[in-house]
Design a protein that fits this description.
The structure is a homodimer.
Chain A (H helix, E strand, L loop, with lengths): L17 H14 L8 E2 L2 H8 L3 H13 L3 E4 L3 E4 L5 E8 L1 H7 L4 E12 L2 H7 L6 E11 L2 E11 L16 H8 L4 E10 L2 H7 L6 E11 L2 E11 L5 E4 L4
Antiparallel strand pairs in A: 1-3, 2-3, 4-11, 5-6, 6-7, 7-10, 8-9, 9-10
Helix pairs in contact in A: 1-3, 2-3
Chain B binds a DNA duplex through helix 3.
Pfam family, one (chains A, B): GntR
Pathway (chains A, B): Amino-acid degradation; L-histidine degradation into L-glutamate [regulation]
GO biological process, one term (chains A, B): L-histidine metabolic process
DNA sequence: CACGATTATATGTCTAGACATATAAGTCAA
DNA sequence: TTGACTTATATGTCTAGACATATAATCGTG
């Protein structure tokens, strides 16, 4: 994740289509502040005249800007540059194996513990389910170039993902397995900071009391819980990077 | 065939428009897993027949799904459900004052230090600029119901935001001021964990060595640096929550 | 079999219209 | 002044075509 990089999009002499040019023109004016928040964008019929095209073409450009939340369209009134209301950052949380190999480092994986059991009340609370089905509880560690990268503590709900019972988590990390076997999921991430307890410190090879970044991820698929996972990262070496989206 | 004439006219009973219904139908099939990643979506001409509409209508539905990264469109080949490749979570990082008042708590603000100076080499490195202009350096604290919420350490580039020279940061938090005076920005957030040093511990009223969540935000506007800010949150009480977006 | 040329086809973009609908703005009466 | 009614207008959706373009498949040749 390079700093401030995806603005530069080379691609020298390419002829963009008209609606893309219209969209980019408007986007540029907004981003540079030439058209500040609240500013009314020219009406569709004015843009038709300026670009000498049909209304559907300018409509497509404006619709995409509206879908991207850059402008707001109001019937009879016109289209307006949206007022910044909150920063919403897009945080890319990759599969850990993919993340490490993408960095050009050697991925290592150690299964610490894996057991299948009937959900305890603590398990049910953590998964947010009320009935006591079977679950898999996994503890494992990810490393990059043989340096501990993160420890993982996971619970998988077998009533949602029965195929997980046959997976070999000694060989494949559960996150990667799930990513390839559960098609589309929703998730909630909670990020916090703690200091390492003895067990975490040992697994990450850091000092007890050293800071750790903790990510709790709760994943479900159409109202059914898939998995709950807690990841500890060494806080002084690991960083989460979230890219913008002003407004 | 009984629906053959439902096209052009009265039909006031149907609320959602047709293209939205098409989009929702497809989205539902993807999200439930009925159409798994890699599955080819019916061709436009098939959807035209199924929904008895023109190609532009199904095209609009599919284009929006493509813009939302839910499907991938390939010429001659068709449209395909996208394979999950990374979890990208949307992290809402509100203006701190807005965040606290939204929680129904009393917002408090204390300016600790504010000085204007010519950028030192450290300032220039932090802002990512090469020329030595004027900057404002601010340290302040936010509190909720009189409990310390976060400490802020900020640098504002006056060559990008000259108006900031006249702002009264003793009264208004710099984040809020910037949000209302700099129209559209891009930003990069870096999240990490540290343990509190003496100064931070004192400001946050926590113990030295307690975990802190650190957010570094680097903000610019069309290639010009606006501000760089570092926020320390007490890690055991503060949590960042990022909601989903599977795939 | 390998490989380049050709073809078929699904998407990409665009047009010149149409009617629907929400609503800002103006009009008029109480 | 205020509230109810009317009108004008910008966007929302849709059609039935058109040509462009990338590329998967097929075909032909060495």
């Amino acid at each position: 994740m390079s700093l401030a990089s995806d603005r530069a999009k080379p691609r020298a002499t390419e002829k963009p289509t008209l609606y893309k040019r219209i969209r980019l023109d408007i986007e540029t004016r907004i981003l540079t502040g030439e058209w500040p928040p609240g500013h009314r964008i020219p009406f569709e019929h004015q843009l038709m005249a300026r670009y000498r095209c049909s209304r559907m073409t300018v409509n497509k450009a404006l619709s995409e800007l509206a879908q991207a939340d850059l402008i707001e369209r109001r019937r009879r009134a016109g289209s307006f540059v949206r007022r910044p209301q909150h920063m919403s950052a897009v945080l890319k949380i990759a599969d850990i194996r993919a993340e490490i190999t993408a960095l050009g480092r050697a991925y290592g994986y150690q299964l610490i513990d894996c057991r299948r059991r009937t959900a305890t009340s603590a398990d049910r609370a953590r998964l947010g389910v009320s009935t006591a089905g079977k679950v898999i509880a996994i503890a494992c560690r990810h490393s990059a170039d043989d340096v501990p990268f993160a420890v993982e503590d996971r619970l998988i709900d077998l009533s949602t993902v029965p195929e997980a019972a046959t997976a070999d988590f000694a060989r494949e990390p559960p996150g990667s397995w799930l990513l390839h076997h559960v098609p589309w999921t929703e998730a909630e991430h909670t990020i916090s900071a703690v200091v390492a307890d003895a067990r975490t410190a040992k697994a990450l090879d850091i000092a007890v009391g050293a800071p750790c970044l903790v990510i709790d991820r709760y994943t479900w698929r159409s109202a059914r819980t898939v998995t709950a996972v807690r990841l500890h990262y060494p806080g002084e070496t690991h960083r989460l990077v979230a890219r913008f989206k002003g407004g």
